Amino acid sequence: MKIIFWLVFASALIYASFFTEKDRLDREVKRLCAIDGGIKVYETVRLPAERFDRYGKIKIQTKEHMKSIDEYYIDYKSNYLVIGNPRLMQINVKIVRAKDGKVMGEFTQYTRGGGDMPGPWHGSSFSCPSSFLGLEALVFVRGVNDD
User: Measured in whole angstroms, how far is the alpha carbon of residue 126 from the centre of its chain?
Assistant: First the structure.
């Protein structure tokens, strides 16, 4: 009976330790997100309607996959702020004009992964903000350039 008690007690202690760090990193995600998280648009680009697909999206390659004819590219960087379990990561996505390297807009996200009770399940995560899907739609708009 004592062995079962100590096993349950040790499990509860380990579980509480994981959640304490997990909760601390979730608070850190919220704090960092409030400082510089989200979408920032520095310049909008008007493109002709034929540059957009039927869903209203424009195809932009990553810096590694862009061709010499591409006018814009996406620069994606991730930086681990805390390594381990749980982990904390900063993700930064920029839309850059190729000819001069000007950043047209960017998205910064902070995410915590892991920190759960060990087991066969997939670990949890928490991100702020949750998605950067609106970045391209805010930078690239339909219309004719005034240039």
Answer: 11
Give the type of residue at 22.
K
Residue 147 lies in a domain: no
Rounded to whole angstroms, how far apart are CA atoms 15 and 116? 8
Q: Among 73, 121, 118, which Cα is nearest to 100's?
A: 73
How far apart are the C-alpha atoms of 25 and 87, rounded to whole Å?
8
Tell me, yes or no, whether 83 lies in a domain. Answer: yes
Query: Which residue from 128, 116, 61 is spatially nearest to 90, judged by alpha carbons?
Result: 128
Q: Report yes or no: 109 and 34 within 8 Å, Cβ to Cβ.
A: no
Q: How many domains does the chain have?
A: 1
**Residue-number span of the structural domain to which 129 is assigned:** 2-142
Distances (CA, A) of 137 to 41, 118, 146: 10, 40, 19
Q: What is the pLDDT of residues 114-141, one digit of tens each?
A: 988 888 888 899 999 876 668 998 999 9
What's this model's pTM, rounded to 2 decimal places? 0.77
